[in-house]
Design brief:
With about 280 residues, this protein is α/β, with parallel strands linked by helices. Helices cover about 40% and strands about 20% of the residues. It binds adenosine monophosphate (AMP).
């Protein structure tokens, strides 16, 4: 294991960074290969890589979901250091949100639909904490996964609107052998649910293949994908849509920059995924 430091306050972080250009990888911990791919990319691009590990209470809809979120800082740090992280920033909630904290960043329009509709307040929580992290670290580059496609769009918008520091870099989704997007939530699935969840990427790839074969009607493409998910009794579809990758507005007919977005619930576990369709 390469050695690195764990710091918990902005002052410690600034001292540890020593003024070098930094790559920032914001996470909520429970690191998997998806996170590690972001850390590796940052380590390639920047002299110093900071991984923040903060389970952000304001982006959770329920206290139970927040309490159930895995917290494994020591093993996260060991894995992050092994793939090139230099500093883990793991602040307590009182450091990020000191007494009297009163500010929320909301991004309009992009947050109206999809995850925004199903998880009220979620993106305000995400945008606010990412704004705080970007201003704390002032990175040259920050790395986010396309796995959370709407989140990436919201962060890009906020970053541009508020002239936040550095460059936002989106990276491709890392998938399991059967195509399921890696997520810390996958560990909550029963073996049967985990097997059924393979239908999520199957639906997306079937839609992409049909588009590649010439189908351009979104309704027909969505119907193809929906059939694959509906065939799994353990999965309940929340939404499956083809959207413009910039605005996230639904498209009737495919055009370049079309993206399929999907959200599925397996018992009490919410799973999301997306794929470029054209
Ligand atoms: P989280 O810890 O879930 O907040 O995720 C931290 C970062 O890792 C976010 O930018 C996610 O989009 C990204 N991420 C999560 N899962 C994956 C994945 N399977 N592939 C690539 N990036 C991911």
């Amino acid at each position: 294991m390469t050695s690195g430091r764990i710091v918990t306050t902005p002052a410690q972080l600034r001292a540890a960074m020593g003024g070098q250009p930094v790559g920032l990888v914001p996470t909520m911990g429970a690191l998997h290969e998806g996170h590690l791919s972001l850390i590796r990319q940052s380590a390639r691009d920047n002299p110093l890589t900071v991984v923040s590990v903060f389970v952000n209470p304001t982006q959770f809809g329920s206290a139970t979901d927040l309490a159930a979120y895995p917290r494994v800082l020591e093993s996260d740090a060991a894995r992050a250091f092994t793939v090139g992280a230099d500093i883990i920033y793991a602040p307590a909630a009182e450091i990020v949100y000191p007494p009297g904290f009163s500010t929320t960043v909301t991004v309009a329009a992009l947050t109206d639909r999809w995850e925004g509709a199903s998880r009220p307040g979620h993106f305000a929580g995400v945008a606010t904490v990412v704004a705080i992290l970007l201003n704390t670290v002032r990175p040259a580059r920050s790395y986010f996964g396309e796995k959370d496609f709407q989140q990436l769009a919201v962060i890009r918008r906020m970053h541009a609107d508020l002239l936040l520091p550095g460059e936002i870099i989106g990276r491709p989704t890392v998938r399991d052998r059967d195509g399921l997007a890696l997520s810390s939530r996958n560990a909550r699935l029963s073996p049967d649910e985990r097997a059924a969840a393979a239908a999520i990427p199957q639906a997306l790839y079937t839609m992409r293949d049909a588009a590649d074969a010439g189908e351009t009607d979104s309704g027909r493409l969505v119907a193809r994908g929906r059939m694959i998910i509906d065939a799994q009794p353990l999965l309940t579809l929340d939404y499956l849509a083809i959207v413009d990758e910039q605005t996230l507005e639904p498209l009737g007919v495919l055009r370049s920059g079309s993206r399929a977005l999907v959200a599925v619930v397996a018992r009490d576990t919410r799973l999301i995924d997306n794929l470029a369709i054209a």
